[in-house]
Amino acid sequence: xxxxxxxxxxxxxxxxxxxxxxxxxxxxxxxxxxxxxxxxxxxxxxxxxxxxxxxxxxxxxxxxxxxxxxxxxxxxxxxxxxxxxxxxxxxxxxxxxxxxxxxxxxxxxxxxxxxxxxxxxxxxxxxxxxxxxxxxxxxxxxxxxxxxxxxxxxxxxxxxxxxxxxxxxxxxxxxxxxxxxxxxxxxxxxxxxxxxxxxxxxxxxxxxxxxxxxxxxxxxxxxxxxxxxxxxxxxxxxxxxxxxxxxxxxxxxxxxxxxxxxxxxxxxxxxxxxxxxxxxxxxxxxxxxxxxxxxxxxxxxxxxxxxxxxxxxxxxxxxxxxxxxxxxxxxxxxxxxxxxxxxxxxxxxxxxxxxxxxxxxxxxxxxxxxxxxxxxxxxxxxxxxxxxxxxxxxxxxxxxxxxxxxxxxxxxxxxxxxxxxxxxxxxxxxxxxxxxxxxxxxxxxxxxxxxxxxxxxxxxxxxxxxxxxxxxxxxxxxxxxxxxxxxxxxxxxxxxxxxxxxxxxxxxxxxxxxxxxxxxxxxxxxxxxxxxxxxxxxxxxxxxxxxxxxxxxxxxxxxxxxxxxxxxxxxxxxxxxxxxxxxxxxxxxxxxxxxxxxxxxxxxxxxxxxxxxxxxxxxxxxxxxxxxxxxxxxxxxxxxxxxxxxxxxxxxxxxxxxxxxxxxxxxxxxxxxxx
Length: 675
Hints:
Blueprint (H helix, E strand, L loop, with lengths): L9 H18 L21 H7 L5 E3 L2 E3 L7 E5 L2 E2 L5 E8 L2 E2 L7 E3 L9 E8 L7 E4 L12 E7 L6 E8 L8 E6 L2 E7 L4 E6 L5 E9 L8 E9 L5 E8 L6 E9 L2 E2 L4 E6 L2 E8 L4 E6 L5 E9 L8 E9 L5 E8 L6 E9 L8 E6 L2 E8 L4 E6 L5 E9 L8 E9 L6 E7 L6 E9 L2 E2 L4 E6 L2 E8 L4 E6 L5 E9 L8 E9 L5 E8 L6 E9 L8 E6 L2 E8 L4 E6 L5 E9 L8 E9 L11 H7 L4 E2 L18 E2 L1 H5 L11 E2 L4
Parallel strand pairs: 47-48
Antiparallel strand pairs: 1-4, 2-3, 3-7, 5-6, 5-8, 8-9, 10-11, 11-14, 12-13, 12-15, 15-16, 17-18, 18-19, 18-22, 20-21, 20-23, 23-24, 25-26, 26-29, 27-28, 27-30, 30-31, 32-33, 33-34, 33-37, 35-36, 35-38, 38-39, 40-41, 41-44, 42-43, 42-45, 45-46, 47-49
C-alpha cells in the first residue's frame, strides 16, 4: 500500500509521491536490519538550498528521529524530528509496529493500543529539501516492547453467617473501564469465579469450614490490562452449638411419652428435625421441631430399661447433636409360681400350681406343664390363682416338671420346677426249683411272691438260654409248674420269667437241673466152636439198677453184619452159625439200648475148628500143603536153639501127629514145624 505523507507545500507533495517506492522498500526492511547511514558528507555551508544544489551536495540526516514516552497501552509516544544537512527541509513521518506500517499513524505522536502489546515501535522520517534533491528517509531506534496497563486490586472478605464468605474485589487501571474476570483459590484449588463489571466483582462462597482461611483472588486481565492477584484472609463463622433437654414419662404398662427441647445460644432453635433410635434401629420417623420442641409417644413397648439415641439434624446456623436418653418403661408385675406334686398310685400323678402377683393371687392366664422339653399339658386355666393337672400310666420313678405361667396384661410370665417320684409297682421275688425223675423227664416249680405275699395273677415263661420252651403259664396261688419229657440228658439251666401285673413288677429266677441219662450197659460175649465149622455166641447184657433187660443185639464181624437183631430176653441172647470158615474169628455184639439203658457193645474171638483127616504124609512138603506150620500133639512146644523163634501156630491134633511121628526129627512133639 503506498504511503501517504503529509506536506505543507505543493512542491514537496510532488516530491513525496515520487519517493513512495523508495520509502516502501525501507519500510519492509526490519528495523534491526536497516543499514547504517553513510558517513556524513562534508559539511557544505550554504546560505540556502539553492546554493547547496549549485554546489552539487545531497541532503543527508545528521541525527535520526527519536521516540519518547512510556511504552504502556494508553500512553502517548512522541517523536523528535531528525537533524538535516540543510535548512528548510520538510519532514514527514510513518509509525511502524515491529517494522510494519501502522495504518493512519503519520503524526509526531502515537497513542498505544492493545495491538501494540509485546511489540516494538519505530518511526521513519523522510526529509525533502527545498532545492529539489531526492527525499531522504531516516528511521528511529526501536522503542518497546509495549506493556499492558498494570492494575491495582483492592480485596476485602467478610463471613456474616456460618460457612459463608463474601469477598469484594475492586480492580482499577488508569483511564480504563475495567472488565474481565476474577477467580478465588485456596491452596491451589479454584473455588469460584465471577466477571468484573466497571472494575467491581463480588465472590460468594458457601459451605466453608469454620475457622481461619487464606484465599488468593486472581484477576485474569484483558487485552489492555495485565493480570494480577491479591491474597485475603478471613475467619469463617461456625454454627451455633446446640443443647438438648429431655423429659420421659411412662404412665401405663408399655407406654412412653418422650419430650425433647433443643436450644442454641440460649434460645429454642428454629428448624431441623430429630430422629429416635434404639440399638441401631430407628423407632420413629423424623420429628419436626416446633419452637424447639418435639414429642414422641409410643405404646406396646417392652417394660423395663431402654436407652434411646436421639439425633438432632442441625440447621445452616446450628450444629447437629446426638445424645443417649435412658428411660424406664412401666412393666407388668412379677409373678411367683409354686408347684407341688403327689403320686397316690402306680403310674398316677397330680400336680398343683399356685400363681401369685406381688402378693395377690392372679385371676387370669394359663399354665403349661413341660417335661424334658416336651409339653405334656397346655392352656390349663387358672382359678383363684391355682391350676391343676393329673395323669395316669406314667413311667415310675423320678420326674421333673416345669410349670410355666403364661402371664397376662398386667402380670409377667413365670415358672417353677418340681420333682415328683411316680409310684412304681412292688418288686416280685421268683424262686425256681426242678427235678428229673426219669430219663429225659424234668419238672419245674416256681413260687412268686411280692411283699411277702403270694401273687395271684400274671403269667410265667420258661426259657433255656435264648430259646423259649413255654409261655403264658398262669400263676395260681403264687406258683407256676411246668414239666417236659424227651429232654436231652445232662445239665440244663432254665430261666423262669414272671410277667408282672398292674401292681407288681416282673421278675425271674434261674435254676440248674441235671436231666437223668440212660444207664450204661455192659455186653459180655462167650464164644465157642463146638464142632468143625461151627460157632456159638452166648451174650449177656447188664445195666446198673436194671433187671430183665430187653432189646436186641446186632452181630457183626468186621464191617459185615451177620445178624441185624437178636432178641434179648431177661438180659440174655444167643447166636450160632455153621459152615464157618476155619480159623480165628472176632465177633462184635452191639446192644440197641432201651428208653432207660444206653447202647453198648462187646467183642469175643474164637478159633473155628477145621475138619482133619488122619493120614500119614510122605514128607513135610506134603504135610505143609495142608498144614503149613506143622502138626503137634496136645501140650507140645517147639524146641529151638540159639536165637530162633519157636513155632506156635502149628495144628494141634494128637491123632494126626501120631501118624507122622517120623517127621518129628527133634522129638519135641511137633512134626514139620515151620514159620
